[in-house]
């Protein structure tokens, strides 16, 4: 059974899944597509406690939330195809590229809220690598997607910081696309071409448990604290459903506070949903206590990332503020 179907089964077991009629203006049904990822923890908690439904009811909307899993692809694509009303992406790079591509079109996409802040760690089992200057043509660095994923973009930012803006792609030839589980297994095994992984929790913590693996740097060193994912909607849906969108943002804001004060309970919910991944509640509880990790709806570091992508020509639009990439529901929050 594939990971997505395991996620469907887990969500159904916890009572998270609804029925699939499409959403309309102030509709009774909201379809949210959510990848199984630790960055999605606020949505997992919200689903378990029906927090979005409760916020909607307080606004006079009787809401049935349908929780979906990505159908083997990018959640943003399902949003654009009309298969979901809201999409969570655990990779901020995917969001920024989609925001740029569809700005000014009928399919315009912006963020409703951020999901999590946590650093990616550049981890290597090659003892010769102390800084990024030590990489050679023989090394290979695992990232979720070459050039477009947030770790790949962070590596380019690190190269630009180290060698100058014109050499931002100096390390691109060393990157290879691997999902988190494949990269984790490769780094632990020490076999094959991959000797370095740019990973975040919980996989980074698992990799660092191997005494042969050491930390080179992390993405907070490169760009400062930043969000790693966001909750997205199209402009059409948001304009037609203001109460629902406000309900979702308020529900997630409450979840952020819950996770801070109930790390064990939040960890247990994630372990139940991701049962076959083998994580332990105690380990995840410790990870959630990392001072660099938080679950906040206010985005962090998005403007800096977007300006870098514009500088290297990967996006066309140059935002003048982080608010340009997010809907007004969170414009008053202390984002960046």
Walk across the major sheet and give the strand order: 2-1-3-10-4
**CATH homology superfamily name of the largest domain:** Periplasmic binding protein-like II
Radius of gyration over all CA atoms, rounded: 19 Å
Task: Specify the number of helices.
Answer: 14
Mean pLDDT: 90
Order of helices and strands: HEHHEHEHEEEHEHEHEHEHHHHH
What's the helical proportion of residues? Answer: 25-40%
Note the gap between the termini.
40 Å
Unreliable sequence segments? 1-9, 12-25
CATH classification class of the largest domain = Alpha Beta
What does this structure look like?
It contains 14 helices and ten strands. The chain is of the alpha/beta class and 336 residues long. The chain has two domains: 3-117 and 227-330, D-Maltodextrin-Binding Protein, domain 2, CATH 3.40.190; 121-223, 3-Layer(aba) Sandwich (D-Maltodextrin-Binding Protein, domain 2). It is globular and about 60 Å long. It starts with a helix and ends in a 25-residue tail after the last helix. Residues 1-9 and 12-25 have low confidence and may be disordered.
Give me a quick take on this structure.
The chain is built from 14 helices and 10 strands. The chain has 336 residues and is an alpha/beta fold.
Keywords:
about 325 residues, alpha/beta, D-Maltodextrin-Binding Protein, domain 2, 2 domains, five-stranded mixed β-sheet, disordered N terminus
Compile the SSE list and pairings:
Blueprint: H1 3-13, E1 29-33, H2 41-48, H3 51-58, E2 64-68, H4 75-80, E3 86-89, H5 92-102, E4 109-114, E5 121-124, E6 141-143, H6 150-163, E7 175-177, H7 180-189, E8 196-199, H8 203-208, E9 214-218, H9 219-223, E10 230-234, H10 235-240, H11 242-261, H12 263-273, H13 281-288, H14 302-311
Parallel strand pairs: 1-2, 1-3, 6-7, 6-8
Antiparallel strand pairs: 3-10, 4-10, 5-8, 5-9
Helix pairs in contact: 2-11, 2-12, 3-11, 11-12, 12-13
């Amino acid at each position: 059974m594939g990971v997505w179907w395991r996620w469907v089964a887990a969500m159904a077991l916890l009572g998270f899944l609804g029925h699939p009629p499409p959403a309309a203006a102030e509709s009774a049904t909201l379809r949210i597509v959510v990848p199984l990822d630790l960055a999605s923890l606020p949505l997992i908690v919200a689903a378990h406690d029906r927090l979005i439904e409760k916020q909607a009811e307080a606004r006079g909307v009787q809401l049935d939330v349908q929780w979906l899993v990505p159908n083997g692809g990018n959640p943003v694509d399902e949003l654009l195809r009309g298969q979901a009303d809201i999409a969570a992406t655990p990779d901020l790079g995917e969001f920024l590229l989609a925001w740029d591509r569809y700005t000014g079109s009928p399919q315009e996409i912006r963020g409703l809220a951020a999901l999590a802040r946590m650093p990616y760690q550049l981890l290597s089992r090659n003892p010769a690598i102390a800084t990024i200057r030590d990489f050679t043509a023989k090394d290979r660095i695992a990232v979720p997607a070459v050039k477009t994923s947030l770790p790949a973009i962070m590596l380019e930012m690190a190269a630009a910081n180290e060698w100058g803006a014109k050499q931002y792609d100096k390390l691109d030839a060393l990157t290879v696309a691997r999902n988190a589980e494949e990269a984790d297994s490769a780094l632990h095994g020490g076999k094959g071409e991959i000797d370095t992984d740019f990973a975040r929790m919980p996989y980074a913590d698992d990799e660092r448990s191997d005494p042969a693996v050491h930390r080179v740097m992390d993405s907070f060193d490169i760009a400062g604290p930043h969000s790693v994912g966001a909750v997205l909607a199209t402009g059409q849906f948001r304009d037609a459903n203001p109460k629902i969108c406000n309900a979702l943002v308020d529900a997630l804001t409450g979840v952020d506070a819950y996770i801070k004060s109930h790390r064990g309970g939040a960890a247990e919910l994630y372990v139940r949903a991701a049962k076959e991944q083998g994580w332990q509640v105690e380990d995840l509880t410790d990870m959630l206590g990392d001072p660099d990790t938080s679950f906040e709806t206010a985005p962090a570091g998005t403007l800096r990332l977007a300006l870098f992508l514009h500088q290297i020509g990967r996006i066309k639009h140059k935002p003048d503020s982080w608010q340009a990439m997010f809907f007004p529901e969170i414009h008053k929050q202390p984002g960046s």
